[in-house]
Amino acid sequence: MDFSNSLIKWYLQNKRDLPWRNTSDPYFIWLSEIMLQQTRVAQGMPYFFAFTEAFPTVFDLAKASEQEVLKLWQGLGYYSRARNLHKTAQYVAFELNGKFPENYKNLLSLKGVGDYTASAIASFSFNEAVPVVDGNVFRVLSRVFDIDADISQPTSRKIFQELALELMPKDTPAIFNQAIMEFGALQCVPKSPDCGSCVMNEGCLALKLNKVHQLPVKLKKTKVTNRFFNYLIFEDEEEKTIIQKRTNKGIWHNLYEFPLIETESEVDIETISIEIVQNRFVENPLLSIIEMNSKAQMHKLSHQNLNIKFWKIEVYGFIEKGINNSLLKTFPFPIVIYNFIEKFLDRKKDE
């Protein structure tokens, strides 16, 4: 089996028409690669178009405020990517005169750019013969060549990188890298791959050994913690409310949210009432507290399960520095809060 030729031939016949494949501009390739980390192509595509329309050059992105960037990123998740994206744009624009480093080694110096992203930009933009190794590549190589190295271990990456480099045609690294990633995304999928129609089926060791569903090996399991968030939706006589910025390190850094009470478990209205009084979120006398969702809404992150409840608190008079619903929607929120705002506002319009 000629792995590389078969792979590239398959790619040329089956590849998707993706906008970042029609350019070698490192800005657009970098933007797409950052967006597609931990994100499916279908989900990332609208964001790519939105960003390239709002920020057609790295200088435009650099000049934007962080709040503008976070707002446009809203819903894509892993918001540290957006913050690093913005900082790197500023560095490239203002320190490097808008020119991205032109090789793998120097690309690694950019904030938010790791081994995979540096390899992708170096090969796609500058035709450097460096292999990209992502989840798709792990899966393809581990199955075709029966590699049972635990991909959760850093040492395993080197095994796959060396194999990919050995297989890569040195004169066409970009197309090889695109091909192997696309093959993993469309053909050699994680569950129930169609091995019968696969161009690699004659030489695939995992298929011969009946190990397709055992590879790749990933032994390390992520520990997931449960957290309980109680968001307080204060509302005064003008239907204005208050929000706050998350300034602590951790999830949703620099995004906005409603005043928050985090508890160790799900709590009742009496506990929330006591917490509101003790924390003095507003100076206004409280008129009522209403549980807006009787069952906590589960929002899953990579390492955390957030159990979220929203509480409406009507207050007497006018909240100092309160904001109306129109202004509220202009701030960047975690998507779970933004969706709540959309639903809540739509409901109020219908009433």
TrEMBL record:
**What's its top-level EC category?**
hydrolase
Look up the signal peptide feature and give its range.
none
Q: Which residues form the HhH-GPD domain?
A: 35-186
Cofactor(s) required, per the database record:
[4Fe-4S] cluster
Record's superkingdom? Bacteria
Family matches, as SMART domains: ENDO3c
User: Where do transmembrane segments lie in this chain?
Assistant: none
MF (Gene Ontology)? hydrolase activity, acting on glycosyl bonds
Pfam families (alphabetical): HHH, HhH-GPD, NUDIX_4
Q: How is the cofactor bound?
A: Binds 1 [4Fe-4S] cluster.
Keyword annotations for this protein, in alphabetical order, are:
4Fe-4S, DNA damage, DNA repair, Glycosidase, Hydrolase, Iron, Iron-sulfur, Metal-binding
Q: Which SUPFAM superfamilies match?
A: DNA-glycosylase, Nudix
Quickly give the catalysed reaction.
Hydrolyzes free adenine bases from 7,8-dihydro-8-oxoguanine:adenine mismatched double-stranded DNA, leaving an apurinic site
Assigned EC number:
3.2.2.31
- Protein family (similarity comment): Belongs to the Nth/MutY family.
What's the stated role of this polypeptide? Adenine glycosylase active on G-A mispairs. MutY also corrects error-prone DNA synthesis past GO lesions which are due to the oxidatively damaged form of guanine: 7,8-dihydro-8-oxoguanine (8-oxo-dGTP).
Q: State the protein's name.
A: Adenine DNA glycosylase
